[in-house]
Write the structure tokens for this entry.
Amino acid sequence: MKNVFKVIATLLFTNAIVVLMLPGAVSAAALPASPALPASINGLPVIYVQTAANTAALASGQNTSSATAVKRIITLLDTSSSSAEEAVNKFSSDIGSVKALLQPGDVIEICGGPVVTKDQFLTNHAANNESWTINGSIPSYRPTANNVNPGTIVSQDQGQNYGFAYIQNNDSGIIGLAAHMAGINTPGDGNCAFMVNGMTNTNDYFIQSGVYFYGNGDANNCWATSIGGTNNDPNGPYGVVPFNLCTYTLNHDYEYDVKYLGGSGDGSCVWWMGVEDHTTGNFDSIIEYYGYGTYLDNNYDTSVFFENHNPSEDWNPGNIYIYASEARECTSSDQWVNWTSQQEALRVGSYTYSSLGVISGSLTSNNQASWYLPLVPTAQ
């Protein structure tokens, strides 16, 4: 399937990549006739509108299978906010008026930082298109397999037999999850991911923010929402899209976030997926206005996990650890606090195993945890 996406992306974006590398105004062809977008939203300028016509991740087919699947990413520039959370809070207090400007399938992207420019966004967006064209689309899944009986082996394309090593947040009633990760060298075989994840209390709505490692050494900070999945199948695959500002760099300190911002009713809840590079001060946030649920479920889908797509005979990542720290949860009163409870395990398909030897340390009480990649379970 990746090869199919690779061919499609190559045909569609060879010319687009060249154009996108040149700074300039948003193409009028990228804007739909209705509803019309203003030049700015909540005081932030609209610097680009990403669609399937100019963004490889939106043309791969995995984001367009439902009425509210992500079809347009409206990118805003924020040079005044000091953090991703500050930027996003400008929108959580004004949900109705912003959503009135949108149509189903729209999300807001906020690119920010002390010295961020539109040209920087355009350069990174072009690089992401090129990477997507070379590497193909990213299939992402959650570590559940509700439709698989124990002992059943399913197609690897379905994802339920990928290997997961997760630390689950065990606290109830939270509305957000966050953790820091130190940028590492891409594991030797790639085709794996490290994600902060949330499963909400309604309609199997699942969101992610983290990093995906390709098999050729490339890596992308990226986000995903199950609204972009295949026919909204809760077992995925989900539409993974690269963040356009915070590119993945060795030894940088990244914070990945997912959080409920407001709204109620099916398809009307607002959720945030974000990354902040604490080394540079840059941040990139996605606000989804057509989500589900008002808090995160207490299960292993609300977790920090490493996801392995490699079959067992191929997995050779090198002697690599991934470290996570400064894990926080957001309470129902909208206060960020340290994790107080967790459990960790390994999962392949419908089987769950002890994490002994793979996960060490703890994400509770502002501690640090590590994943030893050579022992992470592989796809079976």
